[in-house]
Amino acid sequence: xxxxxRLTLATATAVALTGGLxxxxxxxxxxxxxxxxxxxxxxxxxxxxxxxxxxxxxxYVDGKAAAGALTIVYGGGAHATITxxxxxxxxxxxxxxxxxxxxxxxxxxxxxxxxxxVGAQGEDVGSDVDGGTVAILWGSAAGLKGGMTVAxxxxxxxxxxxxxxxxxxxxxxxxxxxxxGTVSASTVDITRGGFTRSGATGGSYTVSAAVHSGDGWGVxxxxxxxxxxxxxxxxxVNGFELDTEEGYNANFWFxxxxxxIKSASYQKLPAGIIxxxxxxxxxxxxxxxxxxxxxxxxxxxxxxxxxxxGQGSASGPAYGDVQTIDQDTAGVPGGGEAGDGxxxxxxxxxxxxxxxxxxxxxxxxxxxxxxxDAGSATVLYGAADGSGITGAGAKFLDQNTAGVPxxxxxxxxxxxxxxxxxxxxxxxxxxxxxxxxxxxxxxxVYALRSGTDGSxxxxxxxxxxxxxxxxxxxxxxxxxxxD
Length: 483
Known about the structure:
By secondary structure, the chain is mainly β. Helix content is 2%, strand content 31%.
């Protein structure tokens, strides 16, 4: 049974953290919503440059194994590492908290700075072992500073609160809501926007999905976007289907509305792990990108993986066409091989600045020149006429590619997570790639800047030593980026 990397590794990694919140040079804030940052980018310090939150859930903190940490890669080049022992962060670092299990960003308090919600699925809450917790860390001109705990709406109904997060405006009121899933339950909790620093919210409600619950079978992933073009963001829920004995992977689309998400209104979608949502073909409807990396029972998965793009429509995504791209698609480098994991992670953004979405695909299980699981990533570009993602001109990236730091090594799993953000405000999306297996599972992040000539390069990687995390244990930096 497949489990997403960010959740699987949360239970298997540990590290020692040297120091708490790192200091960094603050940049004077510009007006929130600067033209340099798109709505799809996080900007925690309001400087107009996109920022990226990277989890290292296996991090040791003050001797506590797998307490977890979150590293912020600021667009201006600074870094900061935050734990539950950092000043102003709720709670305290404890063994197997897995702070950073999942993350989601939005401007939750409406002050013009993006904030980030951080889950710690292993947190013991009073006598509730592994009850889990979620903290919102507040954006400011100096970056993320301080935070508050989000109340679990139903603490007796599940364990692992904070394991699965998604932020979106599901009722169109202009306020970011937070959706919570757990792998111990099939119900999604949604807390309405209206978050304040004193702990107030707009209230909570639940959505039931037709997936298994209990013993790791509950909600696996959440994603959001406007797939029917009505101006209100929708919720997509991933889990293991109830009506099949084998429990094959399944996805369900719930449309947003003025009253939020309703359990009775949903469409079943193609199987695969939902990884991003965006209008890939410029028709006004967001499309849903699914990864078919290693899921059993899914056509194409046994050949090394694939990416599916389910087209949105006025009637919902179940009525749109489905496009399949794999390593055997014309123009796509490489070839499909068992265990490659093509599609394990995917992200949409405009890499070349032509106004059309591109897709970066992680292939963390790729074997390269006899090096097992070195990993790779592939950039698939949107057609110049805006008609969608194609294999034409695709760019293959590994650690032996010119401009990519380091070199291919066994079990680096380069491509463990992938992201596109404009880190330097030049109008082109930069490609950020995680390699959670780098340096004996210390992990690493490679922020490749997009050049006017189409190049993608970085002068150096971001390693545990770069951001103040000890090389002891297995922190797995780069296993998960906030989205």
